[in-house]
Amino acid sequence: MRFRVIKSRSCRDCGFCSTVNICLNAECIGCLSCYYACPYEAKRIIEDKSERRYVKVLIDGVQYSVPERISVKEALRLSGYNIGIFPEEGDIQAPCNLGGCWSCIVMADGEPIRSCITGVKEGMKIETATSLTPLRIVHGPEPHTVGGKATPWTEGKGTRYIEVAIWAAGCNLRCRSCQNYSVTYDNSSEPLTPREAARRVTYYRRIYGVNGMAISGGEPTLNKRWLIEYFRELKRLNPDGKARLHLDSNGTLLTPSYIDDLVEAGVNNMGVEPKGLRLETFMNISGIEDRSLAERYLNTSWSAAKYLIDNYRDKVYVGIGIPYNSDFMSYEELAAIGDRIASIDPEVQVCVLDYFPTFRRRWMRRPSYNEMLRVKKILNEAGLKCVIVQTVLGHIGP
Ligand code: FES
């Protein structure tokens, strides 16, 4: 069944789909990028019963016929190519399907394109094996005084800047309370090469006189080749022992070999944020409806936290993030999360993020200061020694 996306009457003309997450195609190709990006859930998917002709495309030198008004990624899938999500799985990886991560890059008629959001055309010549420099949309750099879940707590005192950060577009999750949705769903900004991004971050490090250089998102781990090259270049430009190369991730794609490669590339500070302990909680927060995929994501993020601590305790400063809001997490689950982290390492830095109302959960209430103090107490009682909670009044540390 083919489908397309239409605007519903709940559209508020906010402009998000004409300025941030834009459509590259004259007609809907059913890629769903705008459907997931709309902050007001004002897009609807409808069945498309209109006649479709077939178009001829040349993929890696072989001719195929595929229906018109579909994405290049879909044409590849229909032609027998495996589309993966996890790094190194599939012939190409398309983890975001939003146009932000550029992981699904192929050549089409001699130009690099994002196969997930670009429509197929009659006579298109597609090449999947590309030796192109990888690309990625990133925002920033910007300095900040607090840092993320893995920024060493001891560096975060006072009002001086402690890090410069960039934020990578695209995410494999669909969190309805996405805390940074204007980056996550951005497919319209110019992408950067790893070298361009590393140079900008290094420049800003010098301007602000900091040692921490963070990348967050969106989800920065989506485009593995880009991220590894970025950290290698950042390390080359910042060879001093004080440089803190910081990756802030949801952990859902961080397999052991990916972590090994990141550490080899120079990462020495890593934050992982398993979104809940119960699968239902993860699905509620992340918006992932495919149960088996959600289970794999959740298990991968918890395993990543353990693998990092077990294998790189001496090389990488690790922080674990916990999203909290009573709308999606009970105190009982929080205590169970505390037990699980304490069983891995009671000394590890844990930062609880008080999820605030935004994006598709604008009606959600931000946890009160006292509620976050209670959250901290619960985790301390589970045996965790270094608990930081984010509150309306700022961070409360251990
Ligand atoms: S999967 Fe196409 S840009 Fe992310």
Extended strand count: 18
Assigned CATH architecture of the largest domain: Alpha-Beta Barrel
Low-confidence stretches: none
The separation of the N and C termini measures 54 Å
| CATH class annotation of the largest domain | Alpha Beta
The geometry reads as globular
Q: What is the percent of helical residues?
A: 25-40%
How would you describe this structure to a colleague?
This protein is an alpha/beta fold. The protein has three domains: 3-47, no CATH class; 54-127, Beta-grasp domain (Ubiquitin-like (UB roll)), CATH 3.10.20.30; 138-396, Aldolase class I (TIM Barrel), CATH 3.20.20.70. Helices cover 29% and strands 22% of the residues. It has eleven helices and 18 strands. The strands form four sheets. It has a nine-stranded mixed β-sheet with strand order 10-11-12-13-14-15-16-17-18, covered by helices on one side. Strands 4-3-9-7-8 form a five-stranded mixed β-sheet, with helices on one face. The protein has a two-stranded antiparallel ribbon with strand order 1-2. The chain starts with a strand and ends with a strand. The mean pLDDT is 96. The chain binds FE2/S2 (inorganic) cluster. FE2/S2 (inorganic) cluster binds at residues 94-104, 114, 116, 170.
